[in-house]
From TrEMBL, chain A:
This is Sarcosine oxidase subunit beta. Its cofactor is FMN; FAD. It catalyses: sarcosine + (6S)-5,6,7,8-tetrahydrofolate + O2 = (6R)-5,10-methylene-5,6,7,8-tetrahydrofolate + glycine + H2O2; sarcosine + O2 + H2O = formaldehyde + glycine + H2O2. InterPro entries: FAD-dep_OxRdtase, FAD/NAD-bd_sf, Rhodanese-like_dom, SoxB. Residues 35-79 form the Rhodanese domain. Gene3D superfamilies: D-Amino Acid Oxidase, subunit A, domain 2, FAD/NAD(P)-binding domain. Belongs to the SoxB family. PROSITE patterns: RHODANESE_3 (PS50206). It comes from Jiella pelagia. It is found in: Cytoplasm. Its EC number is 1.5.3.24. Keywords: Cytoplasm, FAD, Flavoprotein, FMN, Nucleotide-binding, Oxidoreductase.
TrEMBL record, chain B:
It comes from Jiella pelagia. It comes from the Bacteria. This is Sarcosine oxidase subunit delta. Pfam families: SoxD.
């Protein structure tokens, strides 16, 4: 792998940028791997990267049905934060946040991680109580989060309207200063490049069709659109299509797949300094470095794989945006799209073993998986390398839906994910 | 936005409806008698198919009645609606009974 540095940039600038090599190979699948990862999104590629870099497991393949980073990795609103309520979630997302903070350096790839702050607005008494509870719980877990008055919110984010005659007036906000955004494609590409250079095979246009098992029931490999590939362990990291892949393996899952939408405006000069989330009126907004306002909307209410959602969902979000930020009322929206997210009953992910020996799953990130990409990959790599969960992901077992020990962020948090 | 054919009111916009999730999941007769795994399966595990899906809908801002629907989760098109308590129609029958939505 040729490293990016000032010298290499200058050299290539003089060379008309003709000397850059491909960032990863396009290998033919081998007969057998130690570990096969199903799904080449951010989480799958991060898993492969940490398997190789931390655990020295390099005989690894990432199988991707389409192209890497072409699913939810390329469709999310790129928000990164770790201010989750429960200890288990705080541990997982803060683990990811710490990895984000050194990620560009570690990967030698600019993921454009920008800790511009994530401000979550409270619009009613319940929000205020709930967010203050979050602030205190986060601080006990060593995660930065602070309560701001409406005036302090306005000072931090000047485009915000704190007028008392808003339909949903701003009563304050919880600010995580270490939160922010990152460049989603660069995350997938950086991990792909790092994994590939350590010997991981990234195999695109390769759909997994079924599971091959030994007579004792354990995993022997996978059937794919490019033939049968043997594997000692298989990790499914297929996001919204986890249910589809697992049903091909004969397993039902406690997830349902729904469309989640996002949209971007025409690009404008820098006008929006941070990320603002408002869960009560359901809108998130930030400004990309290209200048587009990036806006996240809600999910549809029904199971769907259509990668498009109802227009009334984004209308509802834009109503809220225009009310909170009146100056955006005349901006035009350029594109909107949907991604298929796999939602668990408790809105917490599933990372760990399955009933089949040698088959592991990393799914259920629902509407908030991007922020966890490095942490998810890091602990899932540990799980795949050792066969046992890392202590950070141990509570996120599939078995919790039998024992009843849920991590019920959805009910307790009053926050979007 | 989906246009949903309520069996009682006819075609109405989706915002009048609430989706009640997968249909035909029977609550165990004796919850105390089932194993944890079976109870978990009843509560949490879902078919989540990519294709035809039987689900419950409530016309909350209309007639206020529940009904079942068969919907294709790839195209989001409703294939058929049918009464609560009736068995899931098979695909050919469903397509034939509601050609306008097929």
């Amino acid at each position: 792998m040729r490293r990016f540095s000032l010298t290499s940039l200058l050299k290539e600038a003089a060379n008309g940028h003709q000397g850059w090599e491909r960032q990863w190979r396009a290998p033919e699948p081998k007969k057998e791997y130690d570990v096969i990862i199903v799904g080449g999104g951010g989480h799958g590629l991060a898993t492969a990267y940490y398997l190789a870099s931390v655990h020295g497991v390099t005989n690894v393949a990432v199988l991707e049905r389409g192209w890497i980073g072409g699913g939810n990795t390329g469709r999310n609103t790129t928000i990164v934060r770790s201010n989750y309520l429960f200890d288990e979630s705080a541990g997982l997302y803060e683990h990811a946040m710490k990895l984000w903070e050194g990620l560009s350096q570690e990967l030698n790839y600019n993921v454009m991680f920008s800790q511009r702050g994530v401000l979550m607005l409270a619009h009613n008494h319940h929000d205020v109580i709930s967010f203050k509870r979050h602030v205190y719980a986060n601080r006990l877990n060593g995660i930065d989060n602070e309560w701001l008055s409406p005036e302090e919110c306005k000072a931090y984010c000047p485009p915000l309207s704190i007028s008392p005659d808003l339909r949903y007036p701003v009563l304050g906000g919880a600010l995580q200063r270490r939160g922010g955004t990152a460049r989603h494609d660069a995350v997938a590409w950086g991990y792909a490049r790092g994994a590939d250079s350590r010997g991981v095979d990234i195999i695109q246009n390769c759909e997994v069709l079924g599971l091959k098992r030994h007579p004792d029931g354990s995993v022997a490999g996978v059937e794919t659109s490019r033939g049968t590939i043997g594997a000692k362990r298989v990790g499914v990291v297929a996001a919204g299509h986890t249910g589809v892949v697992m049903s091909r393996f004969g397993l039902r899952m406690p997830v349902e797949s729904v469309p989640l939408q996002a949209l971007v405006s025409e690009p404008v000069k820098p006008v929006f300094p941070c990320v603002v989330m408002s869960n009560a009126v359901h809108a998130y907004i930030s400004q990309s470095d290209k200048g587009e306002l990036v806006i996240g909307a809600g999910t549809d209410q029904y199971v769907s794989y259509s990668q498009q959602g109802g227009i009334h969902i984004i209308n509802h979000t834009l109503d809220a945006i225009c009310e909170l930020f009146p100056q955006f009322g005349r901006m035009r929206m350029l594109r909107s799209w949907g991604g298929i997210v796999d939602v668990t009953p408790d809105r917490s992910p599933i990372l760990g073993k399955t009933p089949i020996e040698g088959l592991f799953v990393n799914c259920g990130w629902g509407t908030g998986g991007f922020k966890a990409t490095p942490g998810s990959g890091h602990v899932f790599a540990h799980t795949l390398a050792t066969g046992e969960p890392h202590k950070i992901n141990a509570p996120f077992s599939l078995d919790r839906f039998r024992t009843g020990r849920l991590i019920d962020e959805a009910a307790a948090a009053a926050v979007a994910h | 936005m989906l246009l949903i054919d309520c069996p009682y009111c006819g075609k109405r916009p989706e915002v009048e409806f609430h989706c009640g999730g997968e249909a035909h999941i029977a609550r165990p007769e004796m919850p105390t008698a089932v194993e944890d795994a079976d109870w978990g399966s009843f509560l949490y595990y879902r078919t989540n198919p990519k294709g035809l899906h039987a689900e419950r809908w409530l016309h909350g801002h209309g007639c206020g009645r529940w009904f079942n629907a068969l919907r294709d989760t790839v195209s989001d098109a409703f294939v058929a609606t049918y009464e609560m308590g009736k068995p899931r129609p098979d695909r050919d029958e469903a397509t034939a009974s509601s050609p306008s939505n097929a």
